[in-house]
Amino acid sequence: MSGRPDSDVLLVGGGLANCLIALRLRAHHAGLRITLLEAGAAPCGNHTWSFHGSDLQPAQREWLLALASCSWPHHDLSFPQRQRRIDGSYHSLASERLKERVMALPGVEIRCNTQAVQIGAQAVQLADGQTLTARLVIDGRGAGGSRGLVLRYQKFLGQELRLAAPHGLTGPLLMDATVAQRDGYRFVYLLPFAPDRLLVEDTYYSDTADLDLASLRSNIDSYVLARGWTQREMLREERGVLPIVLDAEFEAFWPRADAGLPRAGLRAGLFHHTTGYSLPEAAALADGLAAAGDLRSEVIGPWIRDRAQRHWQVQRLFRMLNRMLFLAAAPAERYRVLQHFDRQPQAVIERFYAGRLGLDDARQILSGRPPVPVLRALRSLPPSASRTGPA
User: Over the stretch 70-80, which tens digit does the pLDDT of each residue have?
Assistant: First the structure.
């Protein structure tokens, strides 16, 4: 690159991963010139990101909890044949709160309604014909397609509601699977933000990414009514489709030839392959970048790619569990897999959500009488599942 670039760091995409990167880079490098490009009207979108306190390493927990919108000391799970309360902190981060923090960062230029049409390691071409240059360009535009992946989906519609009277919940209900099972494994997710305010999400582990919004809204109305609650006001609505990975070929997803262009978030494959959640990995990556000594694409790109490849190796066990969920059980019976998992010790459940299961945990999870015919799942493995190396 000849001459002084427009920015030191150019973040393409204003989602969770790049916003956390902007926060941590600014906290550790006061003089760094950072530009964040967002295709929409504002960064951070319209989301609620949630995590267990045990999902995070101490280094991330210290600063990320300061961003949390709500925190609770326990959460509940409800299945047709089992109910359970699990002690341990659970937290939610609202996109509006993260947006306020990012927008207030000094020395960070945020350009909204800005579409990137071509991204290189040191330059980004915009839809208006302008080209921006930087020493470090990070592509964080969300999921980048399914090349190299065999996917299913976690999809949901959520409504934040104000009720006419208190709901009576003392903590989140992460899975209410007592609802009618349709379109795969279905559950309702509840986050109580205030005595009369909560998020109600109708959620599916489904074979398709399609969202029937009218049906989902009707389901939420029926659920609220069945709980004896009266809706006074709908404050906002959010929706999402997260990737659930059954099989993966990392080299096809992120070819080594493309290592020089750094990625972040879902586009880097830095997410939990069973839950689809990406916040813990996004926080860890942001801290790692803040500590890096050489912020250039040709250095950072291979470093992130190696990090993502190691993450995918760890996630092999989760992909096996996904195949059991989707391939060994009929859609209406998939809840039995999660109900069976719910009997595990709390420490195993915590390691599951944190993405840190070991072989002993796998044996523990698969012990006892299985809820579905596991051999049918093993016979249904895609051919690439037997390959050696990162799968």
Answer: 999 999 999 99
